[in-house]
Design goal:
eight-stranded mixed beta sheet; 317 residues
Amino acid sequence: MIHLLFTGGTISMHRDAAAGGNVPTHSGEALVGFSRGLDAISPYRIENWAMVPACHLGPDRLWALRERVREVAESGEVRGIVITHGTDTIEETAYLLDRTLGPSVPVAITGAMRTSSDEDWDGPGNLLAAATVAASAASAGQGVMVAFHGKVFAGQTVVKFHATDPDAFAAPYAAPIGRIEHGCVVYEAGGGSGPAGKRPRPSGLTARVALVPMVIGDTGEMLDLARGAHDGVVVIAFGSGNVPPGAVPAIGRWIDDKKPVVIATRCPTGVVTPLYAFEGGGSRLAAMGAIPAGPRSPSQARMELMIALSAGVAYGS
């Protein structure tokens, strides 16, 4: 049996003329009714956990979702879990779950870019694909994944790459780990994020982490405004990790306050590499104590820092 956990998002939405746009409408039972063929994939049970847009899921609700997934996975009652979710923040949820949960029960997250009001609604097809992933014996040990538009991504590598296209997701620092072919999931060799291992796991998402983009001529005002209310910051830098010289003193003030500064890049692909030693260059920032984001998008770097700080990891560890 697989567990279908519905949280809302575009996959649950229908256009409401009175509201002026798309709003959550369909329960899990309704979505299953639209998805013909689900019975042939696996027995299932339905849980209507929420019916909200992805942008309404804050840290507390994300952690509550994580805890619910953990409970279901540890119950011994299911072979896999499907989560329907709004696409706007699937990458944060997928990263959190894959980073903090063990891989014993496969979890397939999916959603839609079209609503049931649209002729090309992709919701039922994505739900069937996610169920195929969750139910497959080949998914054992793969951990948390995102199944979307016929592709399967590891939870710690996937990002939303297009704002409106049905083929919305990519893995800019990796690649899809599998695909759906003729109703089956086929995995690439060496795919998956692997176990979370011994990396620290928090008991909640209590840390507050800012995400501050750099702009031309930046003098650090936004960094200074954020510092008092946050425990750490991810700076979205230029290129391979460079910032305007005027922002450097503000970065230094975070570091002086023992608050970690992670440097990500605004480029869609490529990893922050501290090569440049001019004022504001990535090499100088690293020498100050700033931390390159590694193969993570800004949103993933922020989630990783939230997890680490919430788990009590000390700056510099």
